[in-house]
Give the backbone structure.
Amino acid sequence: MTTDIHTVAADEVVPAAPVAPAGTARARPLRLAIVAGLIAFLLFGLPPLLDSYWMLVVTGAAIYSMVALGLGLLIGRVGMVSLCQVVLAAVGAWVALRLSYATSLPFPVLVLCAGFVTAAIGTLIGLPALRLSGLYLALITLMAAGAITIVLRAVLFPNGGGGFFGNSAAGGASSRMPRPSLAQTDAAYFRYCVVVAILMFLLAAWHVRRKPGRAWAAIRHSQATAISAGVNTVLYKLWAFALASFMAGVAGGLLAASAGGVSVQQFPVETSVTLLAVVLMGGVYSLWGAVVAAFLLRILPALLDDWGVSTELLTILFGIGVLQVLMTAPGGLADQVPKDLAKLGRRIGRVFSRREAAA
Amino acid sequence: MPGLDDLKPFLVLGLALGGVFAMNGVGLVVLYRATGVLNLAYGAIATTGALISWSLLGGVNQWIAYAACVAFGGAVTLAYGLVFGPPFAARDPLVKATATIGLLLILLGVMLWVWPPSTTRTYILPTRLHYYEIADVRVNWTQILGMIFPVVVTAGTAVFLRVTKVGTAMRALADDREITAMLGVPVRRVEAAAWLGSGIVCGISGVLLGDLVGLDIVGVTFLIIPALAAALIGRLHSLWVTLAAGFVIGIVQSCLTAFTRVHIGARPLADYRTITPFVLAIVALLFFARRRPLVRT
């Protein structure tokens, strides 16, 4: 495997970032309080405020935060770009639906199975490009996205028909999986998705802070150095790809049971491209980036629709956002907004202190 | 299984479509070799150009309308290269390719905004009206152009890279940008030439695609995928392999349309035809990765 050293320089999509989030001892309780407050609001404060349409929107956002999280990890931690993340979520939905019609497994098991099968498929896609440069991986995933979309459009989601593909014309265009007994209502299902998303974020945080995170950082900075330091680069790159695919698969399983169910038209190739844009805009070095990305991808279009603004403007904005992030703001919104707010706060503070001095 | 006679019309369609894939693939490879940028917005630029032609067709002379598409391709690509080429010049190819996704999204948003997909748009090039009967198959001039143009473009580019001064400079750039600059080659001007050239090829393919496959915005934008597959099979380096790969992808994909009786699961094989580029690219990549890496660093 000596040739591996020559294959890739660190494919940094955005310049170097801190390996672990730098949290000072003083800031940590504050941060924990913010996270706890946000979670409490999502679980208990938000659901009563929303009607069924907005419930569907925020449930979608909670689910897509996992899809974005996986891609953010790949880009920010390992320096690999995948363009098939959304399509892998569709694969997860397919697997979950297929198993749900074929077996009577409990809901969490179905979702987990969807995650694992998707992880296996994602790994298979990444495998041929693994020894090549990051550009080739991105291209292969783009083509895989196109191919899987075509297969899905041909076989459709299972809706109770016979055979392996389990689709019959009588079943209607969209398929929906039965929800778990403890989350039958829309509000309860939203809470369920939020809890699963929290678990995924914890999984991501664990990976980033532990051995895989250190290995990924080594690979991102220099593959040659990582190899010479004894890092199994093939294993950890595959692991990252499998983890991202797993998250997409779990998200897909959850999507299959959301209100309205899933149809193949929901997962066009361009969504994978848009997802890449919002993940970059959200910020790939912070787990918060995934939350911002989900907001940009699911909630903002619904808001604009509500205000009567064309959502195509958003696509243009995302395009500009990608260029801006890659050129000047590698940390994305998750990094930029707190900094800018702090700067603004200092400026306001200075104005007030000047006034006091004048008085 | 369909017989040869059933396949003939699809062969013609495939040659024409494959030709456009090949042309786009060659355009991608030339730009990539000179600047290190894999322009993923290629399909989006071609589609926007074709839509502009469509809008102009009602008002102005049709040749001006089609020229506008070519001019748009050249202008947008050149403008992108001038503005975003230098800031990304020293970055990884992956970053450069990702940045073109920004351009793709901007153009996609503009297209969906200005030309909402609710109405179907088509135009017929005057070349489609003239046709020959070759072995009982009708071949029109748009299709002939689709087959001949890519070969001309490839041959022209190959000669250009070999004999002209700018071509030599481009090959030097492909090797090492810093050293080329140190030798006194006006790097930015040479890069601009590469951007402009690939943009014009892109505009021409836009004109042809509008006639060959129609103006479905998202569909044509993502016709970049087969072109990319061709470029990948050519290892993002060889013009002639890319050309051949483009034709093969087009022909295989088109001929699969005839396989309506062979089934995979409940569906005929024909429904899966657009997977062709992916499968061929994967096979090629596996073959390349078998022994040695593709990319020097």
